[in-house]
């Protein structure tokens, strides 16, 4: 079995992100990984919507939107990592634009990661019913081991659904 050298952590910057980051850092330290790679994907659908608004004459455009999102997500990750003692030089942040599941899989393969640590929930269940789940797509298509993090709130909800 190959040693785990790189862990990728997809982030949607949801209320669950702090737990995912803390769990990934704990795993990375326990396994003494060389690189912890955080990846956030700006959904192309959102950029297209901004471009549509621009076509109606509003003063906004996709490139400025993406740049602002990148600044916000970089700051958000810094905040999530405030209490982390994982070495900064062994962490990397990638922010990209596209279809989230496709981009995450491509980055996982390109970066040659050994493990993906991700949450199972970033959106509400009603939104998921209409858009599908990035996590589900990754679980089905990933050639890389995925560790699924669940915070206590989600775990408690899932426990209630199981008949003992």
* Pattern of helices and strands: EHEHHEHEHHEH
Question: What share of the residues lie within helices?
Answer: 40-55%
What is the CATH superfamily classification? HUPs
Major sheet summary line = 5 strands, parallel
CATH class: Alpha Beta
- The total of helices stands at 7
CATH architecture assignment name: 3-Layer(aba) Sandwich
Strands ordered across the widest β-sheet: 3-2-1-4-5
CATH topology: Rossmann fold
Shape: globular
Oligomeric composition of the shown chains: single chain
Number of domains: 1
Distance between the termini: 35 Å
How many beta-strand runs? Answer: 5
Brief overview:
The protein is of the alpha/beta class and 164 residues long. The protein has helices at 17-31, 44-55, 62-80, 100-110, 125-131, 134-141, 152-161, and strands at residues 6-10, 35-43, 91-98, 115-119, 145-149. The chain has one domain (6-161): Rossmann fold, CATH 3.40.50.
Account of the protein in words:
- This protein is an alpha/beta fold.
- The chain has one domain (6-161): Rossmann fold, CATH 3.40.50.620.
- It is built from seven helices and five strands; from the N terminus they run E-H-E-H-H-E-H-E-H-H-E-H.
- A five-stranded parallel β-sheet has the order 3-2-1-4-5, with helices on both faces.
- Mean pLDDT is 88; it is low at 126-131.
Topology (elements, then pairings):
Blueprint: E1 6-10, H1 17-31, E2 35-43, H2 44-55, H3 62-80, E3 91-98, H4 100-110, E4 115-119, H5 125-131, H6 134-141, E5 145-149, H7 152-161
Helix pairs in contact: 2-3, 4-6
